[in-house]
Amino acid sequence: MVVKIVMKKINKKKExxxxxSASSKIKATFSSGKVISNSKEAMSLxxxxxxxxVIGGKAYYSSVEALYLIDKKKLEVTYSGKKLNYEKFLxxxxxxxxxxxxxxxxxxxxxxxxxxxxxxxxxxxxFMVYDKGIKPGEDHSKWILFPVFETNTLTxxxxxxxxxxxxxxxxNLLMGIVDEKNEVTYYEIQWIKT
Length: 194
Fold this sequence. Notes:
It is a single chain. The protein has a single domain (about 5-194), classed as Trna Endonuclease, Chain: A, domain 1. Helices cover about 30% and strands about 35% of the residues. It is built from 5 helices and 12 strands. The chain has helices spanning about 40-50, 65-70, 85-95, 100-110, 155-170; strands at about 5-10, 25-30, 35, 55, 60, 75-80, 80-85, 115-120, 125-130, 145-150, 170-180, 185-194. The strands form 2 sheets. Strands 1-12-11-10-9-8 form a 6-stranded mixed beta sheet. A 6-stranded mixed beta sheet has the order 4-5-3-2-6-7. It is globular and about 55 Å long.
């Protein structure tokens, strides 16, 4: 058996953006590396758009989800009693994660195109991406996504490791390449048996 790796460029066209329609700002706190809210607005937004992860009556937001919602004026985050606006939260997160910006660019791009994007750390990847119309819990994600800057390099071993993660989770590998203008190009990598 011969296995060929096929890599194709995916142009994910902008479509109708996901509407965030919470009537008032969600109040949340940043604590122990997590953004947490127990408001009814947070639960409502989760039900409509699957922002956050609900555990024990609280919504837990990933850092990219939180920044996105702050940018959209739907989330207000406080840390040690002080409000974190978009710039402060971004600087704070970049201080914790040098790869935060490409992750955010990819997250924002896909959410605005109508895809649901969730963290995939349990799989050894950055994100899981659900096809349009699919919500987490209703079906499985279609892609495992790794965001990178276009100036970054990958060794063949790193590339093979990412492929193995996708293959072992029965998902397609998606690479989100962020350029200097913060525009994202996607490459889908699939295994094909010949």
